[in-house]
Amino acid sequence: MSKKIMIPDTDIEIFPFGLGTVDAGLLWDGADADKIFDAFLANGGTLIDSAHVYSDWVKPEKARSERVIGDWLERSKKRNQIVLVTKGGHPDMTGENPDTHISRMTKTDMVEDLESSLKQLRTDFIDIYFYHRDDLNQPVEDLIEVMEGFRREGKIRYYGCSNWTTPRMREAEAYCHAKGYRGFIANQCLLNLGYKYMNPLPDDTLVYVDQEMQQFHKENTGNLLMPYMGVCSGFFHIYAAKGEDAVKNSPYYTEGNMKVARRVMELCTHYNATVSQVVLGFFGQQDFHCAPLYGPQNVEQLEEAMKAFEIPFCKDDYNI
Questions:
Q1: In the Cβ-directed half-sphere of 58, how many Cα atoms lie within 13 Å?
Q2: What secondary structure does DSSP assign to 166-218, as a single string?
Q3: Is the pTM of this model over 0.85?
Q4: Of 39, 69, 82, 297, whose CB count within 10 A is highest?
Q5: 11/226 Cα distance (integer angstroms)
Q6: Helical H runs in 58-165?
Q7: Is 285 exposed, middle or buried, given 0-12, 13-18 or 19+ CB atoms closer than 10 A?
Q8: Which long-range contacts (CB under 8 A, 24 or more apart) does 245-254 make?
Q9: Are 43 and 75 in contact (CB under 8 A)?
Q10: What's the angle, vertex CA 247, arms to CA 305 and CA 304, rounded to 5?
Q11: Catalytic: which of 54, 158, 228, 253?
Q12: pLDDT tens-digit profile of 296-306?
């Protein structure tokens, strides 16, 4: 299993997963946040992932995840030791009934989000800046040119997409090739050990890594897949701790995923591994590089998860 991933035609090399921060400011902040960020770096991690919308659905603070990261960067002076990722253009989540179908991806929206992110993060530039959603009513060409404008201004180094379909990524790739642009260097979509058998999630603006997208990433190694929801929202952890009755209300609760859950338990025993390590080990057995995003609750969880890439899992382990 690879211990480092280099994104082709860039200078970005990362540990095989990124530190997810959707819980920053909710589950950990201040000194606790410092411990998590520092432990991630101490164990070889580099990529820290956020979004301008994290976690606006919890009032009253906006962009609290970026604020927590910015606090740490200001205190630690470790900006040059990390690959900093954030995302803009997400639908507004501050109202009483947020609707993820109402797009916020005009150039004005993106400029507003990026400028605010830079302020929150206390930095002059973002290493990889993502469109957090797509808007099919906007031409790919216009969306790419907005990102290229940010890059020329020095406010971002590279850019990526999140929740874009494969056809839209191919459109973007073709346009960038014609213009001589580097184009998207990463893609964030839903992939995990249980996705194949799960029921659809309530938010239908989320995009799943289907077979077409997996083939895309096999062919396009310069676009690194960064899957989110990598530990299946704790489905296998809850099953291991509390049994089947405790997971019956989960979207992952299907006949197929109950077989997967039993296999997870077998692999835990076989490798003397934890549930987190088995679930994350799945990503190292794909036919393309991918770096899942993982959000820990504390340092102990983080260090346990990072050891997943030291365990000699094989593809047959996950042939379920």
A1: 11
A2: HHHHHHHHHHHHHHT-----EEE-B--TTTTTPPPPS-TT--B--HHHHHHHH
A3: yes
A4: 69
A5: 17
A6: 64-76, 107-121, 140-152
A7: middle
A8: 251/198, 251/199, 251/200, 251/201, 252/194, 252/197, 252/198, 252/199, 253/199, 254/197, 254/198, 254/199
A9: no
A10: 10
A11: 54
A12: 999 999 999 99
Euclidean distance between CA atoms 218 and 223, whole angstroms: 10
Q: Omega of the bond prior to 250 within 30 degrees of 0, cis? A: no
Q: How far is CA 270 from CA 176, 267, 274, 311, 312, in A?
A: 46, 5, 11, 11, 11
Instruction: List, for residues 146-180, the tens digit of each pLDDT value.
Output: 999 999 999 999 999 999 999 999 999 999 999 99
What is the rounded distance in angstroms from the CA atom of residue 203 to the CA atom of residue 184?
A: 24
How confident is the model over 75-130, as pLDDT tens digits?
A: 999 999 999 999 999 999 998 899 999 999 999 999 999 999 999 999 999 999 99
Instruction: Give the SS3 label for residue 261.
Output: helix
What's the rounded Cα separation, in Å, for the pair 234 and 238? 6
Q: What does the angle CA 164 – CA 165 – CA 170 come to, to the nearest 5 degrees?
A: 100
Asked if 54 is an active-site residue, the reply is yes
Is residue 14 classed as helix, strand or coil in its secondary structure? Answer: strand
CB 10 within 8 A of CB 39: no
Q: What is the pLDDT of residue 2?
A: 60
